Amino acid sequence: MNNEFIGYGVNGSPADCVKLAVNEIMREKPDIVISGLNMGANVGIHILYSGTVAAAVEATVMGFSSIAVSFEITEHLMTSTGRQT
């Protein structure tokens, strides 16, 4: 166990997490905020409902560089992994 690591659990949106981290938890301001990793593409109309994208937007509004990271995986890839039972 690493006694130096401190983790936080937040009951809020991803954007709330960015605000809390930057304004209350972090001693130094971040160089960049990376939001995600989100399973599922955030493209088209879905971008309006994405918590992953909202967190990156919130960071940008707060004056920080940011990026939202998502990926799309097909059913074929989900069922053809290297698992054996």
From TrEMBL:
Domain Survival protein SurE-like phosphatase/nucleotidase residue range list: 5-75
Annotated GO MF terms: 5'-nucleotidase activity; metal ion binding
Gene3D superfamilies: Survival protein SurE-like phosphatase/nucleotidase
EC code: 3.1.3.5
Catalytic activity: a ribonucleoside 5'-phosphate + H2O = a ribonucleoside + phosphate
Name of one Pfam family that matches: SurE
InterPro entries: SurE (IPR030048), SurE-like_Pase/nucleotidase (IPR002828), SurE-like_sf (IPR036523)
Entry keyword set: Hydrolase, Metal-binding
PANTHER family found in the cross-reference section: 5'-NUCLEOTIDASE SURE, PHOSPHATASE, PUTATIVE (AFU_ORTHOLOGUE AFUA_4G01070)-RELATED
Family of the protein in this entry: Belongs to the SurE nucleotidase family.
Protein name: 5'-nucleotidase
Organism whose genome encodes this protein: Kuenenia stuttgartiensis
Gene from which this protein is expressed: surE_2
